[in-house]
């Protein structure tokens, strides 16, 4: 499969005018929940979610990058700024394939100079399953 080299999505999140966060890395593989085989041609999208409002009642998501998995169910390594744990900014990821139920991963933690790995398991549409799966990463304080 001919795939482009990972383009540089070198964006910076500026929390204060003089503070720029260090980068971490995100590695994602997508597999069949039942057979554990890799799933090619899955769409993996990473967003930055901004929570706003007095009670955090509103949010806006901006797409950072989107990849399609290769024959091994993998995407290129994604470099992302490590944002501080906060109730106002977080990463989330969606994984979709037309033959599987979609999965949404909330509150993805990216740490400075650390590679975070996710093995996403998709359930085939032929299996009784919820329409969507949400995985919320626990926050450790």
Low-confidence stretches: 1-10, 14-18
What name does CATH use for the topology?
Immunoglobulin-like
Q: What is the 3D form?
A: globular
* Number of continuous helical runs: 0
- What value does the average pLDDT take? 84
CATH class: Mainly Beta
CA(first)-CA(last) distance: 42 Å
Question: In CATH terms, what is the architecture?
Answer: Sandwich
- Strand-pairing-aware structural class: mainly beta
- Percent range for helical residues? under 10%
Main sheet summary:
5 strands, mixed
CATH homologous superfamily heading: Carboxypeptidase-like, regulatory domain
Overall description:
With 141 residues, this protein is mainly beta. The protein contains no helices and ten strands. Strands 5-4-7-8-10 form a five-stranded mixed sheet, with no helix packed on it. Strands 6-3-9 form a three-stranded mixed sheet, with no helix packed on it. Strands 1-2 form a two-stranded antiparallel sheet. The chain is globular and about 40 Å long.
Please give the structural blueprint.
Blueprint: E1 14-16, E2 19-20, E3 23-32, E4 43-52, E5 58-68, E6 78-81, E7 89-97, E8 100-108, E9 115-122, E10 133-136
Parallel strand pairs: 3-9, 8-10
Antiparallel strand pairs: 1-2, 3-6, 4-5, 4-7, 7-8
Quick description:
The chain is an all-beta fold and 141 residues long.
Task: Please describe the structure with a list of short key phrases separated by commas or semicolons.
about 140 residues, mainly beta, 5-stranded mixed β-sheet, 3-stranded mixed β-sheet, single chain
